[in-house]
């Protein structure tokens, strides 16, 4: 489906603002909402040709819709991809980006530190369909080839990871995938396409939970997958069949949000680095990870493949689980929520929320300790964020 003003050579900010659906006969300046479940056809032959996929034309919003097209086209351009599709949620994007590319007997190699629901999909659901997953330790990433089998089909990674904010060398993994003819899939949610582009580093498919920074205000759920045309076509056919496509309204909201992604993420990153430097000095903090802190174990990799460090900080409070609970309960300004990437600063305790269904031994192996706090730094003034963190930390260690 067509868009206007989407020249490949434009800068990120220009593409985000000027990539739009074609104007209607009303010559609207801002893309309208296309709140329709279906579309009409000129005649019987036109209808037959569209459903036979001989003619590219909108037919049904479960398949595609102009608002969805605009959202996908922007992400496709940002990520330097060939094609894409948008989903109702980020997890719908994860599931639909993997399932149609797998068959019974296939094998996945994945980094161990991944989003809890993705881990549940790999460890609990896929085995019922005869698909196994092996996990590599982030501290032993250079041994990943030892996990590859003759039936390995997909290499999966998040970077930075959720919730530990670890950074993987995507170029290295891309070379491994190329060498072994694997489909390399990267969840790029934490970085957004503004800070990192995995496809030039060797990825075949890139996934975004648009619910996070892409929306940026905690209003709408959505997911977007972009990548090589040969894979996206399979994903599209599967997704339209099971009905996982994004609603026109949410696609419209998310596409509008992309117009300000660059300026928002710049401020998020500036705030996050200030907060990370403050927490690193605090006596109540046992450990901290933020990609653009020199103390981060993968700092050099982060500097090489990311524009800035993102808005997520992982840190641990001295005193264990009780101190962590006391810290969360003492917060006055920051929100206690399981979301991230909001304009408002959000604090999450992964062990009891987003990763609560991950077995205890797996939590330990992936660094999800009882005192781990995931901090999604918002757009408030950093003085106010620090004031709230300071009083909550003081309460936690009393």
UniProtKB/TrEMBL annotation:
Cofactor: pyridoxal 5'-phosphate
Classification via Pfam families: Cys_Met_Meta_PP
Sites bearing N6-(pyridoxal phosphate)lysine, chain numbering: 212
Alphabetized GO MF terms: carbon-sulfur lyase activity; pyridoxal phosphate binding; transaminase activity
Secreted as UniProt keyword: no
Keywords on record: Aminotransferase, Pyridoxal phosphate, Transferase
GO aspect biological process, one term: transsulfuration
Xref: CDD domains: CGS_like
Cellular component terms (Gene Ontology): cytoplasm
Cross-referenced SUPFAM superfamilies: PLP-dependent transferases
InterPro entries, alphabetized: Cys/Met-Metab_PyrdxlP-dep_enz, PyrdxlP-dep_Trfase, PyrdxlP-dep_Trfase_major, PyrdxlP-dep_Trfase_small
UniProt keyword annotation of Transcription regulation present: no
Family label: Belongs to the trans-sulfuration enzymes family.
Protein's name in the database: Aminotransferase class I/II-fold pyridoxal phosphate-dependent enzyme
Organism, as annotated: Myroides albus
């Amino acid at each position: 489906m067509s868009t206007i003003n989407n020249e490949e050579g434009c800068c990120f900010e220009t593409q985000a603002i000027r990539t739009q659906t074609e104007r209607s006969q009303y010559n609207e300046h801002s893309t309208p909402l296309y709140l329709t479940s279906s579309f009409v056809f000129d005649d019987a032959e036109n209808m037959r040709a569209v459903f036979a996929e001989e003619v590219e034309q909108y037919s049904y919003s479960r398949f595609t819709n102009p608002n969805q097209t605009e959202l996908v086209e922007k992400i496709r351009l940002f990520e330097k991809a060939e094609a894409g599709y948008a989903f109702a949620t980020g997890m719908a994007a994860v599931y639909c980006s993997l399932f149609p590319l797998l068959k019974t007997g296939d094998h996945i190699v994945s980094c161990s530190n991944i989003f809890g629901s993705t881990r549940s999909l790999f460890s609990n659901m896929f085995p019922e369909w005869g698909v196994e997953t092996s996990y590599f330790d982030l501290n032993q990433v250079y041994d990943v080839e030892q996990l590859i089998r003759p039936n390995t089909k997909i290499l999966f990674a998040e970077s930075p990871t959720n919730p530990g904010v670890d950074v993987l060398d995507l170029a290295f993994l891309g070379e491994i995938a190329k060498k072994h003819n694997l489909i390399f899939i990267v969840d790029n949610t934490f970085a957004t396409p503004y800070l990192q582009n995995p496809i030039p580093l060797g990825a075949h498919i890139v996934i975004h939970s648009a619910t996070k920074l892409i929306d940026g205000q905690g209003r709408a759920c959505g997911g977007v997958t972009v990548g090589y045309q040969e894979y996206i076509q399979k994903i599209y056919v599967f997704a339209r069949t099971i009905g996982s496509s994004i609603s026109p309204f949410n696609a419209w909201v998310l596409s509008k949000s992309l117009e300000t992604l660059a300026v928002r993420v710049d401020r998020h990153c500036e705030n996050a680095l200030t907060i990370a430097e403050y927490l690193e000095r605090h006596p109540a903090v046992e450990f901290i990870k933020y990609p653009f802190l020199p103390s981060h174990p993968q700092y050099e990799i982060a500097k090489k493949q990311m524009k800035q460090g993102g808005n997520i900080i992982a840190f641990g409070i001295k005193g264990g689980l009780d101190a962590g609970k006391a810290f969360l309960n003492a917060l006055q300004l920051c929100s206690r929520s399981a979301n991230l990437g909001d304009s408002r600063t959000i604090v999450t305790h992964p062990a009891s929320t987003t990763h609560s269904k991950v077995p205890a031994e797996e939590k330990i192996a992936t660094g999800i300790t009882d005192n781990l706090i995931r901090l999604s730094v918002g757009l408030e003034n950093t003085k106010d964020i620090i004031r709230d963190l300071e009083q909550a930390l003081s309460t936690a260690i009393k």
